[in-house]
Amino acid sequence: MKGKILTVTVPAYNVQDFLEDCLESFVNSEVMDDTEILIVNDGSTDSTENLARRYADKYPATFRIISKENGGHGSTINTGIQEATGKYFKVVDGDDWVDTRNFIKLVKKLEETDADIVANNYTWMNYITRLPERRQERPFTKVKYNHLYNFAQIVGKTTIGMHAMTIKTELLKQCGEKIDEHTFYVDAEYITFPIPYAETVLFLEEPVYCYRLGRPDQSMSIEKMQRNLKNHLRVLMHLNEYVNRVKDGLSAEKIRYMNELVAEILTSQIKIYISFPLGSGMQKKVRKLDAYFYRNNRMAYSLVKNPAVLLMRKTNYAAFPLVVAVFKYRRNSY
Fold it and tell me: Does residue 221 have a pLDDT over 80?
């Protein structure tokens, strides 16, 4: 019996209003035999499980539902990695979906390639209209499409986020690192942990992942990030600890790449701090966190490029009130 080319894990927690859009985007006649869609129901209390079961019953060779106690986004990915049988692995959240035509192209390309990581562009979709946002992220402008790179060749040119990444399942299993559970913002862990084992990368131009942007309860809203400040910090420190733990024996390029990811999360953590009003005690937290990385991970510290952070450092954080004031009027641009 022919094995599956791709396992897609669909984290699903109380997404009854969106899950059908997600699952229907995988229903086609061309590559369903080559794909395994694992719907990981994370203790939903709405009709998510019933909806997922409908697809598992109708297309049992493609869809499978795994119901578990609530453990958070990281726990659904851990479960998906453990259960995956496909050569490649991808995460598509239950409130997002894929462009079906480009997904078919991706699966067919995965049949041809042996790249460790395949990275596609993705599309930001309006939460209400389901149409592409005018503003889009184009992360792969410094690389060639359909060109197989050695990993070292992409360092300093781009980083590969969760929405873009399709990766060999064996690398995720090989790294053996568990993603934090009951914690937000673990995408950064998912894309960092397997990097020591990845040697080749292929970039594809067609956008596959459709990311639903603007939901009121989205974890990337400023208000949600303020409430989950400690979750974000936990992920940052876990990443930093991981990089320091595995760096011996790794190439300089891989160490730099992983520290670029740490620097991105460090920047985000500081941006959360400056989103609070003055007088909230956040200036002290910024100085303390920045000093910690200066002492304990100078490379990640030096890879921070955010102008506001650099201005605060240059002025010994005297510019903190100015930065807070500016951010107040740009809070929707996080």
Answer: no
Q: pTM higher than 0.85, yes or no?
A: yes
Percent share of the chain, pLDDT over 90: 88
| Cα–Cα distance measured from residue 125 to residue 210, given in angstroms and rounded to the nearest whole number | 6
Pairwise CA distance, residues 188 & 264, whole Å: 9
242-276 in b/e form (b: 16+ CB < 10 A) is: bbbebbeeeeeebbbbbbbbbbbbbbbbbbbbbbb
Query: From CA 120, how far away is CA 271, in angstroms rounded?
Result: 28
Residues 6 or more apart from 237 whose CB is under 8 A from it? none
- Lookup: tokens for 309: 């952070």
Which value, in Å, is the radius of gyration of the alpha carbons in the chain? 20
User: In sequence order, which residues have a C-beta less than 8 Å from that of residue 283 and are 6 or more positions away?
Assistant: 273, 317, 320
DSSP secondary structure letters along 121-156? EEEEEETTT-SB-SS---TTTTS-TT-EEEHHHHTT
Packing angle, helices 229-246 and 252-274, rounded to 10: 160
Residue 103: both structure tokens together: 């997904």
- Structure tokens, 300: 């990640």
Q: How far apart are CA 219 and CA 200, in angstroms?
A: 31
